[in-house]
Amino acid sequence: MTMGDELPVTSLVLPVLIRPVLTQLEKYDLGASQTLRAALTKAEAAVPGLNYDLVAGIMRRADIPVNMNESLLRLQGTLTETECADLRLNRSEEAFQELNKKSAALKKILSRIPDEITDRKTFLETIKEIASAIKKLLDAVNEVSAYTPGPGKQALEQRKREFVKYSKRFSNTLKEYFKEGQANAVFTAMYQY
């Protein structure tokens, strides 16, 4: 993978891996943390995938084999409320806060997949939880729709259709996994969410 590749995993390196590390750095050097955060955010905006390439390059240079899809998926479930605040909706209405909760719940369930995928019985239960969480998230999106006027409502409906499409694709990937056993395909498919 190189800079600008369109896999969703590239866009998660900054919020899921780098920002939490920079938050820890704030305890020791606030100025350095803020400078790095601003620089890496600006660089990522200018060259999407740069942070992915940076981390992957460091791992290759250190000769540390790592599955970035699996690792980022696990890390996504460990983010604190503060660390993922910029990924949340800021509206105070109950419907928006409920959507935030449902989204976080789905991400938490998805983050368990790397640990549970090899235990078929547990994984099947997790798949049921994912299906339920998706339904609850779509219900929350419908509630938010009532607060969204005109063009915003159209954009929301478009995103909802995309989410349903990705959910179906994920379901098909799971079917393939049970036939072929390719766990990385499951990890990659989950980043569509």
TrEMBL record:
<dbReference type="InterPro" id="IPR048288">
    <property type="entry name" value="PDCD10_N"/>
</dbReference>
<dbReference type="GO" id="GO:0019901">
    <property type="term" value="F:protein kinase binding"/>
</dbReference>
<dbReference type="Pfam" id="PF20929">
    <property type="entry name" value="PDCD10_N"/>
</dbReference>
<feature type="domain" description="Programmed cell death protein 10 dimerisation">
    <location>
        <begin position="8"/>
        <end position="64"/>
    </location>
</feature>
<keyword id="KW-0037">Angiogenesis</keyword>
<keyword id="KW-0963">Cytoplasm</keyword>
<dbReference type="InterPro" id="IPR046409">
    <property type="entry name" value="PDC10_dimerisation_sf"/>
</dbReference>
<dbReference type="GO" id="GO:0000139">
    <property type="term" value="C:Golgi membrane"/>
</dbReference>
<dbReference type="GO" id="GO:0006915">
    <property type="term" value="P:apoptotic process"/>
</dbReference>
<dbReference type="GO" id="GO:1903358">
    <property type="term" value="P:regulation of Golgi organization"/>
</dbReference>
<dbReference type="InterPro" id="IPR009652">
    <property type="entry name" value="PDCD10"/>
</dbReference>
<keyword id="KW-0472">Membrane</keyword>
<keyword id="KW-0053">Apoptosis</keyword>
<dbReference type="GO" id="GO:0090443">
    <property type="term" value="C:FAR/SIN/STRIPAK complex"/>
</dbReference>
<dbReference type="GO" id="GO:0005886">
    <property type="term" value="C:plasma membrane"/>
</dbReference>
<protein>
    <recommendedName>
        <fullName>Programmed cell death protein 10 dimerisation domain-containing protein</fullName>
    </recommendedName>
</protein>
<keyword id="KW-0333">Golgi apparatus</keyword>
<keyword id="KW-1003">Cell membrane</keyword>
<dbReference type="Pfam" id="PF06840">
    <property type="entry name" value="PDC10_C"/>
</dbReference>
<comment type="similarity">
    <text>Belongs to the PDCD10 family.</text>
</comment>
